[in-house]
Amino acid sequence: MGQKDKTEVKPLETVEPIGKRVLIRKDEDKKETKGGIRLPDNIEIPTITGRIVAISTEVQNSPDIPLSQYDKVLFNPKGAIPVDFEGDNRLFVVEIEHVVAVFRKS
User: Fold this and answer.
1) Which of 31, 73, 92, 99 is most buried, judging by how many CB atoms fall within 10 Å of its CB?
2) In this predicted model, what pLDDT tens digit does every residue of 85-104 receive, in sequence order?
3) Considering only CA atoms, which of 80, 83, 81, 74 is closest in space to residue 48?
4) Would you call 97 helix, strand, or coil by DSSP?
């Protein structure tokens, strides 16, 4: 008789930073200079900007830390811990001390 198609649904995995940390999705490295010169595939201009994907409860509850989800930030990549979560590996857990600037529209 008709057998039901059993597709296994995997639970969605999330990353939640703990302590004074945020989860940042790093912007893609640039393959072209500001002047429009296309770089070879093996050369990229590294970026140190990204968007905050998630913030820890401690950061969220601290009135002294002016960061929130979806903020565009500049961060020190030496203090960033890569999260092997996606194929392109652009997620990083970053302590707030390594977030050096936030971009705001005036």
Assistant:
1) 99
2) 656 668 999 999 999 999 99
3) 74
4) helix
Residue 65 sits in a domain of what CATH number?
2.30.33.40
Domain total for the chain? Answer: 1
Asked if 21 and 95 count as a contact pair (C-beta separation under 8 A), the reply is yes
Please check the confidence at residue 79 and state whether its pLDDT lies above 70. yes
3-state class of 11 per DSSP?
Answer: coil
Residue 83 vs residue 12, higher pLDDT: 83
Question: 31: which 2 tokens?
Answer: 């393959």
Q: What is the DSSP letter of 58?
A: H
- Cβ pair 24, 92 in contact under 8 A: yes
Two structure tokens written together for 73: 């930030």
CB 59 within 8 A of CB 18: no
pLDDT at 33: 67
